[in-house]
Amino acid sequence: MANFFQVDLSVLGRFSDALDSSVTQMAEALEALEDASRAGELGTPALNQAAHDFQHAWHYGMTQIRSKAQEVGEHVDQTLAAYEQVEAAATADMRTIQAELGVGA
């Protein structure tokens, strides 16, 4: 049983980066499919229509997913900043204590 809570700030940072990347990729994918289906560049008329129908059906859902991923990313960024502040304050306090006790580097 764990008696403490540990946060790996580098992992949290990478998670934030991955969320940012996914938001960007979803937006680019929706835009590319919409542009291609509108321009009729995918191939046959049936394929173009299928792409248009797919884009139309999934646009709302993907927009919602993208929005929620962006919202989660913002909260992760805030959490990361708070943990970094705590880490910096704890480090500074430990250095002060060590200096007062005459120990450490």
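[next item in queue]
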Amino acid sequence: MTPANEIVRGQTKLAMLIRRAAYERVGALDETIRTPSMIEGPGRARLHGLRNVMLEEVVGLRRLHLANGRRRNAKAQDDETLLALKRVMEARLSRLQRL
């Protein structure tokens, strides 16, 4: 099956792997922020010194269609994304102030 559009790289919960020790150090994804958890979770992971590795291989495909949540709930998702970014930035600032 050939995609209709170009395949682009990106982070997704679909293909995320994390070692148990790292997960226990960083904590679970914030379930109160449903859609942009790939901002808040990885942001916290970076604050804890974890690194992100992106594979060259395609490990998952996402089908976009008119009924996708992003197309139906763009405003709510934008608000959640801003909240996730704010939390990551506040955590980083707090950490820098302790140094």
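[queue empty]
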